[in-house]
């Protein structure tokens, strides 16, 4: 199976899960807002309808013009995270007196670059 399809399926599963988790919270929502259980259910249904109508609308209005900017921001976020991770590894290495490197400089960060490039190129 193609890695891009697996990444897309995992993302769809995560998003779908977040939409269904709210159903278990309906009694708590009703209690916290001081409304009845049916009213809390309607509130969740209204949220689901807003997401259903809003997602395609926002996607169509943004269009392809935001894709380069979004990929640039994603790349910057990944690079920032990797820089922080390298800093953390260097600090622990120096603090522990262990001066070895399990992966060379040309190999560090490659798995996440591959994963991100597959996901971004298929979306």
Please give a handful of descriptors for the protein shown.
123 residues; mainly alpha
Description:
The chain has one domain. Helix content is 78%, strand content 0%. Helix 1 packs across helix 5 and helix 2 crosses helix 3.
From N to C, what is the helix and strand string? HHHHH
Overall outline: extended
| Poorly predicted residue ranges | none
Give the assembly state of these chains. single chain
**Separation, N- and C-terminal Cα atoms:** 17 Å
Write down the Rg.
22 Å
Helix content: over 70%
- Number of H- or I-type helical stretches: 5
- Specify the biggest β-sheet: none
The number of domains = 1
Mean pLDDT: 76
Find the structural class using helix and strand composition: mainly alpha
Quick structural gist:
The protein is mostly helical and 123 residues long. Helices cover 78% and strands 0% of the residues.
Topology overview:
Elements: H1 3-21, H2 26-33, H3 37-62, H4 67-96, H5 110-122
Helix pairs in contact: 1-5, 2-3
């Amino acid at each position: 199976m193609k890695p891009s399809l697996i990444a897309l399926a995992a993302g769809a599963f995560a998003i779908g899960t977040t939409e269904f988790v709210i159903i278990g919270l309906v009694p708590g929502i009703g209690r916290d807002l001081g409304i009845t259980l049916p009213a809390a259910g309607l509130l969740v249904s209204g949220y689901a309808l807003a997401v259903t109508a809003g997602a395609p609308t926002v996607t169509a209005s943004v269009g392809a013009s935001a894709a380069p900017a979004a990929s640039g921001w994603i790349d910057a976020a990944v690079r920032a995270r990797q820089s922080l991770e390298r800093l953390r590894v260097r600090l622990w290495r120096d603090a522990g007196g262990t001066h070895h490197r399990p992966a060379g400089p040309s190999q560090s960060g490659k798995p996440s670059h591959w994963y991100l490039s597959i996901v971004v190129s298929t979306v």
